[in-house]
Design a protein that fits this description.
single chain; about 100 residues; alpha+beta; 4-stranded antiparallel β-sheet
Length: about 100
């Protein structure tokens, strides 16, 4: 893999979607041992996995992994912390007066 080139690979994966009171999550596990690096993109093929309330659904699928170039990996490492802060929502109580 070069500085600016991207690689594409397909991998079998297992999709787990939980829609329970105790746990609401979706996980993808690669069955061939593939490991993701910063900046990599994953697209799981097939229809969306929908779990009814109170159930856990596990399905086997295929996924396409687009590997980030070395430059993209470096950029993701440098700017990743700032992008995570965009997900944060801050609220202030109006009970305290200044």
């Amino acid at each position: 893999m070069g500085l600016f080139t991207r690689e594409i690979e397909t991998a079998p994966c297992q999709v787990e979607v939980s829609h329970k009171f105790e746990s609401l999550h979706a996980h993808v596990k690669f069955l061939n041992g593939a490991i993701l690096n910063p900046g990599d993109e994953v697209q799981v093929h097939g229809a969306p996995v929908m779990a009814p309330y109170g159930e856990l659904v596990i399905e086997d699928r295929m996924a396409t992994i687009t590997r980030a170039s070395k430059v993209e990996q470096l950029w993701t490492r440098l700017t990743g912390d700032f992008e995570v802060m965009e997900l944060c929502e801050f609220s202030f109580s109006d009970e305290v007066t200044v």
